[in-house]
Amino acid sequence: MSGPTITVRLLGAAATLLLASACGTSGTTAPRAGTNAIKAVAPGAVSAAGVLGVATTSMGPVLVDSKGFTVYLLTADTPGHSSCDAQCLQFWPIVSAPAGATVPTVSGVTAALSATKATSGASMLTAGGWPLYTFVKDRSPGDVNGQGKKSFGGTWYAVSPSGKPVNAPSSSAATNGGAGGGLKGGYGY
Questions:
Q1: How far apart are the C-alpha atoms of 181 and 169, rounded to whole Å?
Q2: What DSSP character marks residue 78?
Q3: Which residues pair with 116 in a beta bridge?
């Protein structure tokens, strides 16, 4: 082998090792300062069910989607019926129901899980009959930025493992729409 061939092979081997080490990391990182870290209540529940799980946020145990984001309900909905229209769904995406006829049971969730149709026609999960959504302003797992928002005909609450709304303490900014007061135009996110 000559000098250039050895150099190319060594560079290729080094690149392969770097790529393999990057792909082989555990995926766990320490939370950054100032973020709302979540702690799983039911270890593996999110990955086991693939759809829904339970995590502890600053509000206590709440339902989370498969990515660990807080799940909310809208008080304007009724059990088994979503009233969130196309404009609403831009801010409050549905928690999609799993493909197939059955909704899995999830460790740590005592609410009856089922599915209903969103106003878009998509199949969405329900807990205790309540249609489930996430909030686009929740940027990281553990965020609860949608808590107490008043828009689209009702109030948004994080959902407890029993399928009930989680109420924020009365001193929390979440109960009055956060710092700065109410929402512009009813939903000025």
A1: 16
A2: B
A3: 124
